Amino acid sequence: MTRWKALPDELDPQVGEFVEVMRRAVDRAGLSVAAVADRTGYGRSSWERYLHGGLLAPKGAVVALAEVTGTPAVHLVTLWELAERAWSRSEIRREAITATAGTLPARALPGQFGPPSSPSSPLSPPGGERDRPGARAGGAARQRAALFLAGVVGVAGVAAGAFFLADGRDPHAAGVAESPSPSAAAPRVLPSGVQCGGSDCTGRDAQTTGCSGGLAATAKTATVGATRVEVRYSRTCGAAWGRITPAGPGDTVTVTAGSVRRTGQVSAPGATIAYTPMVAVSSANEATACAVLASGQQGCTP
Question: Are 294 and 248 in contact (CB under 8 A)?
């Protein structure tokens, strides 16, 4: 039987309970973490984090775990839904703390933006020469010469930098851009277990691609009757999706970003949550989620 490490003290109790249930399922099946990874198709390093409270498992991994351990999927998914909400609340609190810390004024260290001012400048003549008219004229000439030389060096440095950045070619020549454009930006680097980023995520499932769980947070909310409508956003994946809880048969949720729209419904019998496929966004503000309930009630997030 696997020897599990103690869960982090700061882990939400609902998340902790869910992790413990997954651990018991693995133990009952007599599987090692490596075997779970091999049979579910999710990496071993990912399962190490899922089963030790470092990252909330995506729904797809939970369903796969239920299959390989013989655990009722509805039971595990229900517990996952509760854990996912608790994880989201924790994410929102962490983001709020981070945002508050980011507003604190920063103090520059002495000399951080240049040398501290001193009573005498190296361009000024010593005190003994200051009183002589000739010395004053000579000092002014030396100062102008120094400033001129500094200007020449600066211009030469800028020209040299432009030359090397352009690889010695005319920046207006074909294939050389004066400044990078968004389309020329470096490709998105995705963490282990995440399968898409940006436009590649449009139309795909947030759970199975690894964009949900600990990599997502609720950005907008609204209430329609007793149902909560949310815009879920993953900065890592550059995508958003809509979610409603609790959801029932006939309830639908949509997410819209510009001209792109996706719709979702309850996907499994007994489930109480519905979510849409993802849409690519550069920020959560671009997305709007709406719910249309079987009762006829409807509403959207701001």
Answer: yes
Is 87:54 a contact under the CB 8 Å cutoff? Answer: no
3-state secondary structure of 112: coil
pTM of the predicted structure, to 2 decimals: 0.46
**Sign of the alpha-carbon torsion through 89, 95, 99, 100:** positive
Sign of CA dihedral 11, 42, 240, 74: negative
CA-CA-CA-CA torsion sign (24, 25, 28, 31): negative
| pLDDT tens readout for residues 214-229 | 788 889 999 999 899 9
Q: Is the separation of the CB atoms in 211 and 196 below 8 Å?
A: yes
3-state helix, strand, coil in the chain (%, to 5): 40, 15, 45
Tokens of 59: 């729904």
Any residues with CB less than 8 A from the CB of 229 and at least 6 apart, and which?
221, 222, 223, 242, 243, 244, 253, 289, 290, 291, 299, 300, 301
